[in-house]
């Protein structure tokens, strides 16, 4: 039986060390933008996406040195989305992870620039992987997945629809679309990229994609629940912002109890699919369970 807490602590530390190795040095005339980027990257967080990427790669026998640039890039892209989400023109949140949000600390102009810079830096980091990889075809496919799931057919596409419908009621069909893209796309990319870099076959990659989709939507619904039931002290960011911004969420559409039931259903789907895959799945299953039942 795996000592989950100890192994999780070890793997998060490993993930953190990998990410730190790819952060830009704070030097040169433009050093302030590096400071803003690193401030955001070092503000805490679960390192969920790079951790899932690493563990999915491990599940299929992959080498972590192949996954490392993609792990760092994934966290950069995720962090860029948080920086942009917090901006006055978006959610106007002044706190993130218990600290001042990037724009509140450095100014709105540097908030925009830091978010943009992290996206570009993420792809620069991934491009550097081609200098060292033993599996260029796997790396090329992983890069394609990352680009698609970041852009207009992924995270940014979901954000676009979310912004378009600000202060408007959102039908469930469009809310599902937003959740699949805005939150689910990077989670899906993380796990599928891990599978690709680990050498998984097409059928296995498809199963991983379906697992990640279930996890991503469940994760966002749990986030909706916590926005209503938790506090800023626990979450490290303002709660009640969905109501403040008149945002439609799964909770506002279906209520707390139905939202919790949907989290359970999606979790069950993900675990059932995971059980059909080869390899030692115990640790990955426990991570998924932790993420979608979290209280902060």
- Domain module count: 1
Structural class: mainly alpha
Could you name the CATH class?
Mainly Alpha
Could you state the CATH homologous superfamily? Farnesyl Diphosphate Synthase
Explain the layout of strands and helices.
Elements (H helix, E strand, L loop, with lengths): L3 H17 L10 H11 L6 H12 L4 H23 L8 E2 L2 E2 L1 H5 L1 H21 L7 H15 L4 H10 L7 H27 L3 H28 L2 H4 L5 H4 L5 H5 L1 H20 L6 H11 L4
Helix pairs in contact: 1-4, 2-6, 3-4, 3-9, 3-15, 4-6, 4-7, 4-9, 7-9, 8-9, 9-10, 10-14, 14-15
Write a brief structural summary.
The protein has 296 residues and is an all-alpha fold. The chain has helices at 4-20, 31-41, 48-59, 64-86, 102-106, 108-128, 136-150, 155-164, 172-198, 202-229, 232-235, 241-244, 250-254, 256-275, 282-292, and strands at 95-96, 99-100.
Features:
single chain; 296 residues; mainly alpha; Farnesyl Diphosphate Synthase; globular
Description:
- The longest helix has 28 residues, at 202-229.
- The two termini are 26 Å apart.
- A two-stranded antiparallel ribbon has the order 1-2.
- It has helices at residues 4-20, 31-41, 48-59, 64-86, 102-106, 108-128, 136-150, 155-164, 172-198, 202-229, 232-235, 241-244, 250-254, 256-275, 282-292; strands at residues 95-96, 99-100.
- With 296 residues, the protein is mainly α.
- It is globular.
- It is built from 15 helices and two strands.
- The mean pLDDT is 91.
């Amino acid at each position: 039986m795996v000592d989950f807490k100890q192994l999780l602590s070890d793997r998060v530390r490993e993930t953190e060390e990998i990410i730190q190795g790819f952060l830009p040095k704070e030097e040169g005339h433009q050093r302030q933008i590096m400071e803003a980027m690193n401030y955001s990257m070092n503000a805490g967080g679960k390192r969920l996406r790079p951790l899932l990427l690493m563990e999915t790669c491990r599940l299929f026998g992959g080498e972590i040195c192949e996954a490392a640039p993609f792990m760092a890039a994934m966290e950069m892209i995720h962090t860029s989305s948080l920086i942009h989400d917090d901006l006055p023109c978006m959610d106007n949140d002044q706190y993130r992870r218990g600290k001042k949000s990037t724009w509140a600390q450095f100014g709105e102009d540097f908030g925009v620039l830091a978010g943009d810079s992290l996206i570009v830096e993420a792809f620069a980091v991934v491009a550097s992987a081609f200098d060292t990889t033993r599996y260029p075809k796997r790396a090329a496919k992983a890069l394609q997945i990352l680009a698609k799931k970041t852009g207009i057919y992924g995270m940014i596409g979901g954000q676009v629809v979310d912004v378009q419908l600000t202060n408007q009621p959102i039908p469930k069909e469009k809310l599902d679309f937003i959740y699949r893209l805005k939150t689910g796309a990077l989670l899906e990319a993380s796990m599928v990229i891990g599978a690709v870099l680990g050498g998984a076959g097409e059928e296995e990659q498809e199963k991983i994609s379906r697992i990640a989709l279930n996890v991503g939507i469940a994760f966002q619904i749990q986030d909706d629940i916590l926005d209503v039931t938790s506090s800023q002290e626990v979450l490290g960011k303002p709660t009640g912002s969905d109501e403040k911004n008149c945002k439609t969420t799964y909770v506002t559409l279906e209520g707390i109890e139905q939202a919790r039931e949907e989290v359970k259903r999606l979790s069950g789907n993900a675990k059932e699919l995971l059980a059909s895959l080869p390899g030692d799945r115990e640790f990955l299953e426990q991570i998924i369970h932790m993420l979608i039942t979290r209280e902060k």
